[in-house]
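Appendix B. One record, verbatim.
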Amino acid sequence: MNAPAHEHIDPAAKKPSRTFGIDLGTTYSCISYVDDSGRPTIVKNAIGEDTTPSVVFFETEDNVIVGRIAKNSQKTNPELVASLVKRDMGEKTTLSFHGTEHSPESISALILREIAAAATAELGEPVRDVVITVPAYFGVSQREATRHAGEIAGLNVVDVVPEPVAAALHYDAAGGGDRTILVYDLGGGTFDTTVIRLVGNDISVVCTDGDHHLGGADWDDRISSWLLERFLAENPGSAAGEHEDFLQSLATSAEEMKKALSRRTGQKQPMRFASEVATAELTRERFEQLTADLLERTFGITARTIETAKVKGVDHFDDVLLVGGSARLPAVAAGLRSRFGFEPRLHDPDLAVAKGAALFALIQTVKTAFPEGDDAAPATVAKIADQLGIDPEEVRRLSEKKVVTVAPRAFGIKALRQGSLTDSYVDHLIKANDILPATPPVQRYVTAHPDQTSILIEVWEQAGAVASADLEHNNLIGEGRIANLPPLSKGSPIDVTFSMAQNGTLRVHAVETTTGEDLDIELLIGGLNRDEVAQARDAVARYSVGG
């Protein structure tokens, strides 16, 4: 939900507080804003770097460290370090440190809190209103969890925006013009492909696909496993493979080797465990052999996205943009060239998403600044331009900017097949890649048993790569119950309506038509509930956080 205009526009001040864009990445995160010249600018962290490792070191019961030092602490205190938590967003998983349990949301909140604090110190102004990016393929639970992470960090989450949309905004601002683009986004822990149309002031997502458990960290794992094999081959009987510190050192070396092999064709790595030593040399060719199946998974998703786009009328791409740090791997561009005939190009791979999020944040700020019903009259435009410190023409252009996204997956309810009392399936009311906001036609169902006095509505989300009605290919993400009904006859009708907002928020409405009652069901999305969010906010607030 967009924050109200008064939270952005302070009539007593020359300029309102900024709304910042945050790329909350699996392996690295960063924050950006649009400066007075209209350019998105990255705010450096406490040690002067553009990006901050998304790693948290629980140093003591009351003190945590986020970023580079935390990442380095994985070698010495792996049991006190949390990383790659974005992969578990929206899941009911916990990690325990010093006897305190943490959810992926609360750990992400610590990362957000440090990023915001560093930006506040750098700019001399508070960071409160933010837009946070999410992988395009994140479902409802993951998006809600991302919002919760921001709230737990004490931030006002104005909106969440899909990462490829943010990258497209940055591309568009650089003067891309009317074009159809394919964004290949290979980040540290997630992968997406998205087709986007840029026409005039409109940025429209055509379709998206991806895997939020596939990313550069998987390439790192292959290298670290290979390094361990080489070490044990030179040191038969070694206990190195059972030693957490040694394994962590290999993981750190693996990431460094991956980056080096993007620049050169071979890299040597010395290794030591106690008195045992070994040196392994990994060539780029061998590295690409070790990870060929991972790359092929990205190409399979890319091919599926291209086919979906064809069905929607897209038969060519003006540009193929490579986004995400791992998109630098030479095999990525080479494979896209040989497999699909593309000529892909890197598009500010580490920072494009954060910069685009800052642009999206500015667009939201401008839109919410206009009084409701105002048709961008010159006097209003001039006033807002003065408050925001930007050119009136830019205000008008941004106010007309429209971002159209699609449903990342299919969503539906559990139903019984006709004539059966046991054969359940998922009836998808919202299809993957439906344009948002989406409100499909009302779907009618009937009660399966006589004398029912309540009706359970289970909401399911597509889990597999392709939508399927089978329960095992879907995840239960929430439920609601219509209760206290008079005994209903078998076959009593229930009308169910799904609606998904542009930001991916899902709502369900059900009507029991026999009684004529109109019942709204508050969908209990999986992940943290409101009380748990409040508790986590209090728990996170007590920590001293440093970078």
